[in-house]
Amino acid sequence: MLEKLIIQKTLRVPASTGTAGDGSGVARQLDAALLDVGFAASRDLLDHLGALAPGPAMDLAATVVSAVRELVGDHVRHNPYFIGFPEGVPDTIEFWAERLRAAVLTGGGTATGEQLRDVVRAGGINLLDLPGYGACQHTWADMLALHDDLIAGAGDRVTLLRLGDTAEVEAERLYLALAGGTTPLGEADLSILGELASACADAAQPAEIPVRENRAVLNGVRLSLGRPLAGVDSTTDVLRLACHVSGGDVSLATATRFRSFRRPERRVLLAALDQVVAASPAKLGDIGRYAERWKRLGERLHPHEYEQWPHAREVFAVARGERKVRNLAGRAESAIQAGAVVSAASVLSSAPGLLLRSADRLLRLAPRAERAAVVEAVTGAFGSASARVLCSLREHVGNRLTPASARMYASRSRSAWVGPDRRAPLPADLVTELSALLDAEIGARLPVWERPLVVDPEVLDVALPLSGKASEGGFAVLPRGSRATVSGELLRFFMYWRQDSRRTDYDLSVQLLDDDFQTAGQVSWTNYRHDGVVHSGDLTEAANGATEFIDVPLSIAGRYVVPQVNIYAGESFDEVAESMFGYQSRSPEQRGAPFDARTVRSRSQMRGKGRIALPVVFVKSGQGWQAVWLHLYLRGWPSFNRVEENTFTTAHRVRALMERRYLTMSYLVDRWRERTEVTLWDGTPPDEPVTFIGIHAPEGLPAGSEVYTLDRLAELIPA
Fold this sequence. Notes:
Blueprint: H1 2-10, E1 12-15, H2 24-36, E2 39-41, H3 43-50, H4 54-72, H5 92-104, H6 113-122, H7 140-146, E3 159-166, H8 167-179, H9 187-199, H10 212-225, H11 235-245, H12 263-279, H13 291-301, H14 310-319, H15 328-337, H16 341-348, H17 352-357, H18 359-365, H19 368-380, H20 387-397, E4 407-410, E5 416-419, H21 428-445, E6 453-455, E7 474-475, E8 483-485, E9 490-498, E10 505-513, E11 519-523, E12 529-530, E13 533-535, E14 546-553, E15 560-569, E16 578-586, E17 600-605, E18 612-621, E19 624-634, H22 647-659, H23 665-673, E20 678-680, E21 691-693, E22 706-708
Parallel strand pairs: 1-3, 2-3, 6-20, 6-21, 21-22
Antiparallel strand pairs: 4-5, 7-17, 8-19, 9-14, 9-16, 10-11, 10-15, 12-13, 13-14, 15-18, 16-17, 18-19
């Protein structure tokens, strides 16, 4: 349902067009139901619901409650292995011994220590096969009956839901924002864009589609509807489109198995290729990068059958190596290898984005006498490059004064490579010069606000959303490198998965690191307790879904708390029917069931490539604890991954990320401060309409205010 999608993405409830009447009773029920899951309806939303007839009011209320429950992970049953968790969790060895006794004496009685030793000496013991291991021995109802209702705390989360326009208007607004955005979308948002593109096919369309992956998704809908393609101006645009409609990776990070295309589809794709190459033959130079995929696509499109598009046939001739075409990057690399760095910069000047992405290397390789010419070429490209590229370069330059302790590169699929940083640092005067020029160019492109600008301090440490690939779908999920204050005295991590077609065992673990990023302990299915940290028990299959929890008191001695999810066996994160990670915060006196939606601070999907997920790290500082988002996946082993075996690789990635200085929303706010007054939100409603920037929208903003919350922060990055 579009209404549910809109609510989950924007926290705005589409206004109902149902019959008017008296829905005040339903409004009161909704208000109570929302508070049970940590949400509250705005006064306008309650008034709107109360003005509807009971039938339409109940339909809208049911949609709202269903949407927010899914958003925070309350739509499934979270049942821990140990029924009394966090109480009653035994010592790990004692628990295994108890399970072993049950295996030895299946007919009843008590096994002696000697009997247990005989069984172990005989070999062939598999802990996962012991009777009762890995599956709850109680029902969900049994577990709830053992726990009291949650004791409400002053710090429990309450997230405001606001009233929006009709579903059609809200869908079109969200569609235009996603389709016309200047930053790449993550997998979840690309999926949303595809749904909205189908629903809004006859509505207003974006004037421009800057991000090429977005073009592929939109053109996939156009192709299925038999409509002209939009914005295709490169051969790679056609390849992305073919991958998308084949169910493959639109980012081209992984290969796609192309489906068969109907004759009308083949005509559209080949005609688009022909038009691109006819207008600019130099674009044949892009073919070599994906030559093998072009060969496979050619087998599906049969270009030899269509003599009317000779330029399209050239594409596949280049892919097969029958024709040689040098691309821009190849010419620049040849110049660099010949020692002509200035010539390489000149070649790349016709592609400003590529030049700026190569700026560090060119500046390091340029002889001192030629550095000024390279700087001139780089700075000359500022005006032609996108603001996203400029912000990326500004962040990069800010980290180049000294070598990093470890260099980390995170791919689009969120897998991370870490190695030594052997690059020479850039000179301090050069860093200062480039930073000042970049600040001026970025600041000049930022929007000028007609209303007073009010900023919630909590948003200042959110990393600029330069790419949706550096995040995940979910609730209150921040981009990689973002920091969020952690309240409460107890963290509770939860991890849920539901297998699709085969037995799948995910394991939630916590790694503790000291000030020097050395291991200070771990809690996992092999070690249920450490320094007050408690595991809820190991579940080994999830045909109907399974949840594991870990409690971490924030009084622990470690400096870094690193939750991780290991795939021990079965389906990967992008194969399972559903998987999620989240954390709750509680005070020690709060009691209740292990999962309560009111205490959920964040809930993220797990859909990356890899066998080990590192969603977030928690770090202790002088001001308390902070959550720092990672969104990383480690390759791991095909099976049997355990926290004990990835301590070194995990610590290196955490250290590399913690030491990196990310460009955050405070950077943009500082640029605005240079030309307008900025007021920090203190909870006092303003007297006039404002432009508000924050993670969530507060109650009480005057009518006519423009609100930029977590779902719209990317819109603040200009073109």
